[in-house]
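Saturday, quiet lab. Running sequence design on the structure tokens for the scaffold JK sent over.
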């Protein structure tokens, strides 16, 4: 509700005569100038007592009553206007979704068109030695005949796909790029070589309808075969079942947990300590406690090629830990540079690049030479960075944060800087983000019952949201517990609110939530082993480190 607020400070009110005494009365004489209506006790002695006066507190009370009534009317007006604008926003958002859907359909047609042309080229690339030898001696013109047939086939293919493309393109005839698209389509219909007009008319006018029907029939058959083959190969349903004997009590809060590459060691950030556990045949046993951090440990990541792991903390530092010959862990190097809490870390495959995100709104790139050094800082986020993910090709990073912004950051080649190539605005704080493949990532926003899927447009190389995955959430807590995608099992792990959602990416590209584990609290942290065999969590309700194992149903 809007509340009236007086811009002046009552304590600073003074009479016009400069007595430096508190104002207690207001003269209601309309003939008096505005600055002479405020009276202090000394002013009252010099003022005609018959003049109409009201106490300052009373007059302020009357004014505030009037302002409250006025604000009620203002609020009603604003509320009505907001409803209209919000309705307008909803309609425009629907329009946006429809436009994106239609453009994606156009892109799909073009990609199939491209594939069709490539297949035709591949078919004509094959030849018989004996036939070609015969042509050389008997009919030297037959090569040209074959080429003419090939060109006609290309023409027919282009006519077919143009008939699919044009109706959808017409929806965008007000766009500046529409005419350019029509020009390119005309060029395709005229052919890749200079035919004479009679040949063009023959292809376009005489055979057009017959060939469109024929090719459409073939294309539909191929599409059906593709769909049938996709559905005939299904990954088995699964769930994760708790290993009761593996659960251990842990009273200290664990904000981060991670397995090493062979699932023989796990580490847990318990307040400022890092506890190291041996994991063997489903049983975990504490073997060491590391006390170097000065505040909560928020992130933990194991290296795969070496016996090392990295940690990030509320104390603003990143630490590299190494296992010695006695199988004990010690701090190898401290990375200082951030001015805020370390919230997320990712490591590249070569293990010579660490990327970190922080409450200081920055993303830092640390490279390994003789030791780890900060090479670059990205400052495009305006608020805390919550999530980071590196694609499989290792040349693209996606980030999200409290500023409701997604950054796509790319590296064009070795020894070059990382550059922000795209910014995507979203409706809420981005909590977790994860690349599924080089051209697709998923995003969880705070308190949302769905995960958004973003895919790269093959034409303009820009990412756009293409769909949502329905999941269970409830009220979300911390931004920790990053999303993970297990490529070998096609499983996306996503913590959302009080739930851990386990989502299968099917071979037809669809996402299906197979299991949602409810923990009864949003103070829930954990991770998954590299092979997806084990899910490890700590939650406030049980105060246990729990391990669950993958089972096919």
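Result came back. Writing it out in full:
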């Amino acid at each position: 509700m809007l509340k009236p607020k007086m811009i002046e400070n009552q304590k600073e009110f003074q009479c016009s005569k400069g007595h430096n005494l508190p104002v207690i009365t207001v003269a209601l004489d309309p003939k008096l100038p505005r600055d002479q209506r405020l009276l202090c006790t000394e002013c009252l002695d010099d003022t005609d007592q018959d003049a109409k006066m009201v106490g300052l507190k009373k007059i302020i009370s009357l004014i505030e009553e009037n302002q409250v009534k006025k604000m009620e009317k203002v609020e009603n007006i604003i509320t009505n206007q907001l409803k209209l604008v919000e309705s307008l926003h909803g309609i425009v958002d629907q329009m946006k979704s429809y436009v994106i859907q239609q453009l994606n359909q156009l892109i799909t047609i073009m990609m199939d068109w491209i594939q069709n042309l490539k297949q035709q080229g591949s078919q004509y690339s094959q030849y018989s030695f004996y036939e070609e030898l015969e042509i050389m001696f008997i009919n030297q013109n037959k090569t040209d005949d074959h080429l003419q047939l090939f060109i006609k086939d290309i023409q027919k293919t282009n006519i077919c796909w143009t008939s699919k493309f044009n109706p959808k393109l017409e929806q965008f005839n007000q766009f500046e790029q529409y005419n350019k698209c029509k020009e390119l389509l005309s060029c395709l219909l005229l052919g890749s070589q200079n035919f004479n007009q009679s040949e063009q008319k023959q292809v376009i006018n005489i055979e057009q309808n017959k060939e469109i029907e024929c090719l459409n029939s073939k294309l539909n058959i191929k599409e059906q075969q593709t769909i049938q083959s996709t559905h005939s190969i299904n990954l088995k349903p699964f769930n994760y079942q708790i290993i009761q004997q593996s659960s251990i009590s842990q009273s200290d809060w664990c904000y981060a947990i991670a397995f090493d590459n062979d699932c023989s060691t796990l580490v847990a950030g318990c307040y400022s300590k890092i506890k190291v556990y041996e994991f063997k045949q489903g049983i975990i046993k504490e073997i060491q406690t590391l006390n170097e951090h000065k505040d909560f440990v928020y992130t933990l990541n194991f290296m795969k090629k070496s016996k090392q792991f990295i940690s990030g903390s509320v104390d603003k530092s990143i630490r590299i830990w190494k296992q010695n010959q006695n199988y004990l862990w010690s701090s190898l190097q401290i990375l200082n540079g951030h001015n805020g809490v370390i919230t997320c870390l990712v490591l590249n495959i070569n293990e010579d690049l660490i990327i970190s995100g922080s409450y200081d709104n920055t993303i830092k790139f640390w490279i390994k030479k003789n030791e780890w050094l900060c090479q670059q800082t990205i400052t495009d986020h305006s608020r805390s960075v919550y999530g980071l993910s590196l694609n499989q090709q290792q040349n693209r990073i996606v980030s999200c944060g409290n500023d409701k912004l997604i950054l796509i950051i790319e590296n064009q080649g070795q020894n070059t800087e990382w550059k922000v190539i795209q910014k995507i605005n979203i409706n809420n704080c981005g909590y977790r983000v994860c690349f599924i493949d080089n051209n697709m990532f998923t995003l969880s926003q705070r308190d949302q019952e769905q995960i958004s899927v973003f895919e790269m447009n093959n034409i303009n190389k820009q990412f756009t949201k293409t769909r949502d995955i329905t999941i269970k959430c409830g009220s979300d807590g911390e931004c920790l517990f990053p999303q993970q995608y297990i490529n070998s099992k096609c499983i996306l792990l996503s913590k959302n609110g009080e739930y851990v959602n386990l989502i299968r990416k099917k071979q037809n590209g669809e996402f299906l939530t197979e299991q949602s584990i409810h923990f009864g609290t949003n103070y829930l942290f954990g991770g998954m082993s590299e092979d997806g065999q084990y899910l490890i969590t700590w939650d406030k309700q049980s105060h246990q480190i729990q391990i669950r194992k993958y089972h096919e149903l």
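Notes for JK: The chain has seven helices and 32 strands. The domain at 238-552 is CATH 2.130.10.10 (Methylamine Dehydrogenase; Chain H). Ask whether to fix the surface positions before the next round.
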